[in-house]
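Subject: Transport permease protein

B.,
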Amino acid sequence: MSALSLAVRDSNTMLRRNLLHARRYPSLTLNLLLTPIVLLLLFVYVFGDVMSAGIGGGGADRSEYIAYLVPGILLMTIGGTLVGTAVSVSNDMTEGIIARFRTMAIHRGSVLIGHVIGSALQAVISVVVVGAVGVAIGFRSTDATVLEWIAAFGLLTLFALAFTWIAVGMGMVSPSAEAASNNALPLVFLPLISSAFVPVDAMPGWFQPIAEYQPFTPAIETLRGLLLGTEIGNNWWITIVWCLGLAVLGYFWSKSLFNRDPK
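Prediction pasted inline below.
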């Protein structure tokens, strides 16, 4: 077999392995999926009228706030699934299976590729589930064209792949599953200090740079523009730069950790 065929075959095997693990142990995935759904329902039905009146400066309109909130919750869903990725990789590193893989005649990169593709697929499926909940409670995107829907899906997929590489690196550098979970928590908190719930210009002046100069805010604004027809501005290319930069960083970081000789 050629080197490319070997890499594809072994990566496919590792992908199936990770998907089987996710199917056999669904509790972690379900727990992480529950968080964005609870936040979506909480902010719509408990805070929706107040938040919509505050953002719009007029009367309370929960439907307008649903439209504003759902794109941010979708990207927050991706951030939440990264904890499971880091924990899964850490378990592989600490339980000895990686040491076993090192002695086998398999493509070395296939272990990482299997984790990344499997985790990204789970993230996209989670986004679809949360999006379905959003539609069920009133989210509509009637102005988006087919091309805009495709672009939105591509944005979510690229975002998931980029951050999954970072989560893989976090899992590999962690000495235990608990440490991996803690290391990945910033990826869950970042959406909370972005424009997911309120516009950046509604935040205190000293806090606005923190919310603006991070990867989630431009991605959320780009997704809102694609789905709702709001102004995107330069957020689209900032999002792409963030995603490509994080993917490259996560790839080389994870690769260097994986190729490091075990102590």
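The chain has a mean pLDDT of 87.

T.
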